[in-house]
Structures are given as structure tokens and as C-alpha cells.
Design brief:
alpha+beta; 214 residues; disordered C terminus
Length: 214
């Protein structure tokens, strides 16, 4: 009996070790994928797009996750925004990263607001992603866009999402800013120029070149 019990305990321990190895392997895979994404600049496919349509499509991709998390989505999309010159897939990547961060910040559910506005004086469009989650501590807020900075538990992200997002927005000659208060929530504001101007993208050789898309 004792021998059988010892064997069962060994098998259970082996299963736990295998689960741990599998989990760490997935984490390493995510780390490598994010490192590759962070270290290279993908070519940009700049087109004239409807920014509200990109936002709407992005939200459909995460609608089920929002429902499971008990998060209410509130859309406030301005109807006077002209088409914007940008890479729709990359802007969608940024929006999804911000929304997934918001979901993580609201483990007990909450509210997520997405808003678009046109700034005619500056010929820009603003996209706001706001949540009423846990908020970001001041000592972290000033470094929030730094690579490998993460507030998530071990195994749940490597801290490259916001760094990559900032890089994408800056390549569009735009800005991404954050305001947050612990216990009240966080607001990310993306500002994009209506005209593409000289965007930075990778050439076939991997060198950085300027692409005039006017």
C-alpha cells in the first residue's frame, strides 16, 4: 500500500512538473514572438481608412471577452471624422493591446469607453480608450511605455505591448498619452494626423526609410 501511494505521489509530481514546463514553454514562445515584433519594424501599408470602422471591427474581435469579463462597452464615435491615412492593421493592433490591458485592469467587471473626436484646428483625430479599473500607480505611470515593464503576474505578459504600441503610433507621426488614478481608472489618448506626411517604415533591407504618402 505504501509503495503504491508513493508511486501515485511521484506520478502526480511528474504531471505537475510537466504542466509547469508546458506553461513556461508557452511563456517563452510569447516572449520570443514579442521580442521579434519589438526588434523589427514591419512594412507599413498606408491607406485612406475610416478610423471609426477600424475601431468598430476591433471591438467585435474582443466582444466575447468583454462579455465574459462583465465589462460594459460604451462607444462614442464622432460622425465628422474624415478618412485618415494610416496602416489599419497596425492601428487595430494598438487598440486591441489597450483594450486587453483594460480588461486585465477590471477583474471584477466595469466599464470601457471608446471615443473618437476630430481636432480641426490641428488637423488631427483623437481616439480615447478609458476604463474605470484599478488604475496605474504614479511610480509606474511615468515608465508605462518602457519595454519589459509589466504590472501583470508572472506568466501573464512580458511588458512589450505598450512599448510596441507607442512605436506604431510614433511611426504614424502621432502621439499616445496616458492619464491614470489608482482606484478610478486609466485613459489612453491616441492622436493621429489626418495627413500621413513622412512616415517611417522598414525597407526590404531592414533599414529605416521615409515614405511620403501624400
Amino acid at each position: 500500500m505504501e509503495r503504491g501511494q508513493a508511486e501515485r505521489e511521484k506520478r502526480e509530481e511528474a504531471v505537475q512538473c510537466l504542466d509547469l514546463i508546458a506553461g513556461e514553454s508557452r511563456r517563452c514562445g510569447d516572449l520570443v514572438k514579442n521580442l521579434l515584433s519589438f526588434s523589427r519594424t514591419a512594412p507599413m501599408n498606408v491607406e485612406s481608412i475610416d478610423i471609426n470602422a477600424v475601431l468598430d471591427r476591433s471591438m467585435r474581435l474582443v466582444q466575447h471577452q468583454l462579455e465574459l469579463a462583465g465589462i460594459q462597452l460604451q462607444l462614442d464615435l464622432a460622425d465628422d471624422i474624415p478618412r485618415v491615412q494610416c496602416d489599419a492593421a497596425q492601428i487595430e493592433q494598438v487598440l486591441l493591446a489597450l483594450v486587453m490591458n483594460a480588461i486585465d485592469a477590471m477583474p471584477r467587471g466595469g466599464n470601457l469607453w471608446l471615443r473618437t473626436r476630430r481636432n480641426e484646428a490641428r488637423a488631427e483625430v483623437e481616439i480615447q480608450v478609458r476604463d474605470d479599473g484599478m488604475g496605474i500607480p504614479p511610480e509606474i505611470l511615468s515608465q508605462i511605455f518602457e519595454p519589459f515593464l509589466t504590472t501583470k503576474d508572472s506568466g501573464h505578459g512580458v511588458g512589450l505591448g505598450l512599448a510596441i504600441s507607442r512605436g506604431i503610433i510614433e511611426r504614424h507621426n502621432g502621439r499616445i498619452e496616458v492619464q491614470s488614478e489608482v482606484g478610478r481608472g486609466t485613459t489612453f489618448t491616441i492622436t493621429l494626423p489626418l495627413e500621413a506626411g513622412n512616415m517611417v517604415q522598414a525597407g526590404s533591407s531592414g533599414t529605416v526609410v521615409a515614405a511620403n504618402t501624400r
